[in-house]
Amino acid sequence: MRAESLYRALLYCYPAAFRQEYGGQMQLAFADQIAEARRTGSLLPRAVLWARAACDVLSIAPQEHCHVISQDLRYALRTMAAKPGFTAIAILSLALGIGANTAIFSLWNGVLHAPLPLVRDPGQLAMLTNPATAGMWHGRATGVRDWLTYPEFEQLRDHAANFSSMMASESFLDTWTARFPDSATEEVRGRLVSGGYFATLGVSPLRGRLFTAADDRGAAPYAVISYAFWQRRFDGRADILGKSFTLLSAVLTVVGITPSGFLGETVGQQPDLWIPLTMQPAVRPGEDLLHDAPPAKAMWLHVFGRLKPGVAPARAEAEANAVFQSGIESFYGAVASPDRRREYLDQRLKIRPGARGASETRSSFSTSLTVLMAAVGLLLLIACANLANLLLARGATRRSEIALRVSLGASRGRLVRQLLTESVLLAFIGGLTGFAVAYLLQVALARMIAESDRDFQMAFSLDLPLLAFTLAVTLGAALLFGLLPAWQVTRADASAALKEQVRGGSLGRMRWGRSLVSLQLALSLPLLVGAGLLVRTLFNLQHADLGFRADHLLLARVNFRQADYDNPRREALLRELSGELQRIPGVSAVSYSQTGLFTGGESTSTIEVEGYTPKPGEDRDSSTDVIGPGYFSTLAMRIAAGREILDSDRAATPRVCVVNTAFARRYFDRRNPIGMHVTSLGDERSVTYQVVGVAQDSRTDDLRSDVKPRFFVPATTPPSPTFLIRTTLPSAPLMTAVRRTIQRVDAALPVTSAASIEEQMAPLTAQDRATAQLAVAFGSVALLLAAIGLYGTLSYAIARRTGEIAVRIALGARPARVIAMILRETLALLAAGLISGAALAYAASRWVASRLYGVTPQDPLTLSLAIGLLLLVALCAAYLPARRASRLDPMAALRE
Amino acid sequence: MPESLLPLATAVFHILIALADRDRHGYSIMQDVAARTDGKMQLSAGTLYSSIRRMLEQGLIEELAQSPDPSSTDERRRYYRLTHLGRRAAAAEVERLTGLLQQARATGLVPGA
Hints:
The structure holds two protein chains of two kinds.
Chain A: H1 2-10, H2 16-40, H3 44-82, H4 84-113, E1 125-127, E2 137-139, E3 143-144, H5 150-159, E4 163-170, E5 174-179, E6 185-193, H6 197-201, E7 207-208, E8 222-225, H7 227-234, E9 244-247, E10 250-257, E11 273-276, H8 280-283, E12 297-299, E13 301-307, H9 313-331, H10 338-345, E14 347-348, E15 352-353, H11 360-397, H12 399-407, H13 412-452, H14 464-489, H15 494-504, H16 511-542, E16 553-558, H17 567-582, E17 587-593, E18 603-609, E19 621-627, H18 631-635, E20 639-642, E21 656-660, H19 661-668, E22 677-680, E23 687-695, E24 710-714, E25 722-727, H20 734-745, E26 751-756, H21 757-800, H22 802-810, H23 815-848, H24 860-886, H25 890-895
Parallel strand pairs in A: 3-14, 6-11, 8-10, 19-24, 21-23
Antiparallel strand pairs in A: 1-13, 1-15, 2-12, 4-13, 5-6, 5-9, 7-10, 8-11, 9-10, 16-25, 16-26, 17-25, 18-19, 18-22, 20-23, 21-24, 22-23
Helix pairs in contact in A: 1-2, 2-3, 3-13, 4-11, 4-13, 4-14, 5-9, 11-14, 11-16, 11-21, 13-14, 13-21, 16-21, 16-23, 16-24, 17-20, 21-24, 23-24
Chain B: H1 10-18, E1 24-25, H2 26-36, H3 45-58, E2 61-63, E3 79-82, H4 84-106
Antiparallel strand pairs in B: 1-3, 2-3
């Protein structure tokens, strides 16, 4: 008896259909065999029987499962082939839904979450600098440090005992002109890194050697190149090792190649090469970034450490701060004033997890990518609701077939399984096609990101997290859109439900179909509202009042420091260049400034303002710029009071300055600023300026934040001025003439950037443009799917009530009345969807709030427009089947 | 086309042979196969019914609506009978095996009869 129940339990390993068909017979046969074995009196035959039963479970049961699955697949393929239109819509919408999810996930994961590729034990890495920033700062800093100086790094490396190793890298990617033996000059991108860079990251060379601590001692004229650069530039030739090339004035030897896929410490950037930090004087001439000369420090390095096993980050942070602060104290030891000393010493390090590396892009794209991730999630839900709806409608037409199979003894579980197999198959084909969509979308997205961060590079790679995500999304989608229809269609009272629907099948009766269409409309609305808000943001940003004329303007930056020019030479060149540029036909005015426009750079100065007492603890820094004569008139910035800076002001005493209205408001309140004095405090000497003018506020560094107080002083010898060239002709064609003029005046002067104001400003709105474009694309797909869903449901409903409509027409109902009746029913459906959709959009709009500009998240106009658009599309989708119904031939319809 | 089913799985061929002279139920097939092979071929219940399922689908055998043995005490047992296709398939398999045997003998791989 026990043996029989145990055997019965084993039978549950077989597919249900097989068990139901043959389980009883197998039990009988097994019982006979056991009885016979018992008669022998020996245990062995019984043991053999059980062993065989166990073998069956391991070999025959899986075979039977495969058989059932292959049967289901064949059945699914037949059904799919029979309805090619439906199959195409299903696969296409799934491919779009899954592909969009895969593409956004790939970036979302790659930019925001994935650890640095090919780095050993990334969890052990800690960052002593701010991962979200990149750049260089000359001067002094307060509070938590973003970057460190080279001597600070050396101290930490040598004295922080909680780290097994430590490395430093240039926080930004450098662009150099290099000349390889076999070619003309070319641009390469790379980073200066310390000797411990590769060892700390735990990466081994693919060929040759990487840098070591020895490269930190004295000149090390070497370079390590990336795999991508090796392949692209040298076709993977092995003989590149040991070859030398010229980079500016340095001659460097290629000593090693990093493995494929290694990026370094910054996500989204692929350097061509790495050079030891000790080579800085040769590859960044004109500045000394390896030594701190009081009172200024050159902060420009990211520092990573590998924590010793078992060391808590908090302990490492305390120790690192102790080392760091003792260094700061001895550095500022000579500063006399105790007040200033206290300010200078208010600096500390913060340790952050280093596993994901540094990335400026990460923080700026975090909101956009998360919002897009939510949007594509919604899109997939809409696609699923759409498919569920179409499957429901189609299932209804298959009821007779299904009823027949039930009467032939097929269990409900078996039928559900069969229908789900079809859903899973559809989803898989959709998912595979989705990869193609994902690839195209990801490449386009990466290009869009690169528009706002020109160093950004991220290849589409089919890694494990991506595959797992896509598989999960595919299966999830299959269940989402397949389960409900499968359950509904195979209901025991299916035939009863069918009859009921034929009799009185108004739209109202189709509970599930109606809910799904409402759901689709509800989910589409937040997408449309989001797209609307982002488009308006983009428009507002592109049409923001900058306070100056942002067209017909060229910007060209030259670098006197890199050329190693002294002050008299700089001054002479500034005059000559201004004059020559002015003579170019089509140029109406020329001026220059050290900060330039939208360069990302900024200068600040600690100030004292006449008659203004700072509150205790108030920040005494103000933004400042050194400018050439005619700066304001060249840019067409309005002077609200007084005058602008003139050529005669350069050498004049007393020195003069112009302040902006934000400055005047903050420091002079209701007093007249003209004639008042502003003092710029320096460590060695302070300079006092007399205010001669107030300029209208203008946006010259970013579009979103408030204009900061700023004062402008006449330039004497700026190290790297940007020429501002106002043109009367379209500016782009004049750029060549500008470059040629600078070349003619001084061929050795490096032009580090040259762009029209439009080009210069494009990166500022690139992210908004990309997000808005994607949101519009996703919103359109959602709208299209909602239209398909509504059209499908209505067509089906109308087909089901042909008889009723025919009777109405036969009794004299005019076509217009039939159409009106159907549209009225549709409106009820729409209302339900729109009300829940509006609630959803309202709740979701807070998410995008931080990306918006000049429009509130709950903007009523955008919401009304989105609702209007949805209504219009929905009514169009409903009109087609309604018109068809109104043209029924009643006699023919009733005869059927 | 019986040829399209060749070569037959060993279990399938044994079941065809067992059903050649009379209709049988599952356990009877198992017993017959064991007896004819001196216990060397023992079909397990799983192998047997998995083969039967496939043979029914292929039309090699059919299930009888009633027990052929009126004296049978157990009405739960299902009986199977060889179909015409089943016979042709068995014959084709025999022909295939014979040809194979002849080739083995002709090449001297095994001694001739």
